[in-house]
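DM from R.C. (forwarded with permission)

"hey, sorry to bug you on a friday — could you get me a structure for this? deadline for the figure draft is monday and I only need the backbone to look sensible"
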Amino acid sequence: MRLYYGWLVAWVSLVVTLMYGIFYAFGVFFTPMCTKFGWSSAETSATISIHAATYIVSAILMGKLTDIYGPRLPLWVGGFLTGLGLILSSRTVTLLQFYFFYGLMASMGVGAIFITTYSTVIRWFVKKRGTALGLVTVGAGLGAILMPPMCDMLIALYGWREAFILCGVLVWVVMLVAGLLVKNPTMEVLKAYGEILGSMGNELQVSESSNVTNITLGVALRTRAFLLLLSVYAFFFASTYIPITHMVPFAVTIGIPNLMAAGSISLFGVSSIFGRLTIGFLSDKIGRIRVLMICFILLTVSIILLMSVRNVLMLYLLALIFGYSFGGCIPQMPAVTGDIFGSKSIGTIYGVLEGLAFGIGGGIGPVLGGYLKDVTGSYQATFLVGGLISSLAIVFLIFTSKLEGRVTL
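My reply, with the result:
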């Protein structure tokens, strides 16, 4: 039998999501730009806050474009904006210019990297949706590992301005090629390969032809399922961004050397890749809600146990568990969204869902963790609250599982 084209779409999407690693490399550009222009750390860091806020708009816009025109247009538009923003960042001479070029322009295209690829893969896969999305989400994990050292090497060889230009050109090339290869499937192709037939082994098992799927954003926003998923996703970002932000500073405060403390983040990144791959496959076998519950239980335990870390061995062990369960959650959220709402408006629905959840949870978590550290003088309350927030997601998942495939208003 000829190779299912959906797997080519998944592999190309993996390469596209790897491009987000350029934004993970922001810290590599941080010091040379501060040194060049005399900007403060707070002023420069504000660029990432602008990036996060812009991503909300980008996710919704690129999701809508994907639903209306298919993946090619948003991939090309998003790639053009991101690449141009990075190239123009190389011409920066003022802080406001950098905010506009990097924080706004480059970030406005980022929604195409995730929302367009995820929603297109959801359209190609039903029975193996978890496995396919697990493969695609590996790209972001690899990007976080590979892109920062690559950018650091480019800066060392050519300077930060030239590094921005090369990164922008790389994005242009990848997104141009991706736009040529990534496309939506036809119903005939899905039927021919059995993707719209048979059980998915999911508590929220639905058929793509069911009368409760393939609904519009307007209808989705009025459902309990959307509110429940939004809550789960917001709790996910809020709870996980607490240790992501504060794990290394905490380790340093208990006497672990800086380099060894930073190693916990590297282990977190590597283990998250394995989580994305293996948990995605497992979700196709035992169901996505069950798998998400297991992941959130591991997240809750690992975050709370950070309170008791006294040595580097325990820190690394918890970082591995935390990273694995974190990675396991990533592909399940778009997969569950597709299971419930179908593929017709999945780009718009998931764009709104992820954009709002990331804006709310990602905005609250790190600040809340820092505030608790400031008022208590230690990180004990920070990790305890992070674990409790993660446990709330489990409660909402229980309610979600009881929908049993029904999208109720």
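R.C.: lifesaver. DSSP finds 18 helices and no strands in the chain.
me: no worries. Residues 197-212 have pLDDT under 50 and may be disordered.
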